[in-house]
Write a structure and sequence with these properties.
The protein is mainly alpha-helical and about 140 residues long. It has a domain of about 90 residues: Up-down Bundle (Four Helix Bundle (Hemerythrin (Met), subunit A)), CATH 1.20.120.50. Helices cover about 75% and strands about 0% of the residues. Helix 1 packs antiparallel against helix 4, helix 2 runs antiparallel to helix 3 and helix 3 runs antiparallel to helix 4. It starts with 14 loop residues before the first helix and ends with a helix. Keywords: Iron, Metal-binding, Oxygen transport, Transport. It comes from Candidatus Marithioploca araucensis. InterPro entries: Haemerythrin_Fe_BS, Hemerythrin, Hemerythrin-like, Hemerythrin-like_sf, Hemerythrin_metal-bd.
Length: about 140
């Protein structure tokens, strides 16, 4: 069973952004599966580290795409949304750093953070730009 399951409720009605959100969910699920199949083992697992790095890289890519849309269409909430992105990236990188130091005690915290961050960010912050961008023909 997937750790996070995509729901139409998460859609921001912009095909490319929805696809990216689904991809982020897939990466998180992949990482969760790897961790759960290696319970009790070191966080030094190469596959887990690789997926965590992919998550960090893809998150950065996704945020840049969203921010370009905001700039292109003069989204009035750009500054606040960018600050949220920056904060989330800092938190993710801090968790990754602790994970890479073999701090196994943070594993559950990582997944709690990821689920809360992704779903709350989509359902609250990202939903705020949906109407604005849709009104400008972005679907």
């Amino acid at each position: 069973m997937a750790f996070i399951t995509w729901s139409d409720e998460y859609s921001v009605n912009i095909k490319e952004i929805d696809r990216q959100h689904q991809f982020l969910i897939n990466i998180i699920n992949q990482m969760h599966d790897l961790v759960m199949t290696n319970v009790g083992e070191s966080t030094n697992n190469t596959a887990i580290r690789r997926v965590f790095a992919e998550l960090a890289d893809y998150t950065d890519y996704h945020f840049r795409i969203e921010e370009e849309l905001f700039k292109t269409h003069n989204y009035p909430g750009f500054k606040v949304h960018k600050q949220q992105h920056d904060q989330l990236v800092m938190q993710l990188l801090e968790l990754q750093k602790r994970f890479l130091k073999n701090d196994a005690s943070i594993i559950q915290g990582i997944f709690d953070f990821l689920k809360d961050w992704l779903l709350n960010h989509i359902l609250v912050s990202d939903k705020e730009y949906t109407v604005f961008l849709n009104a400008r023909g972005v679907f």
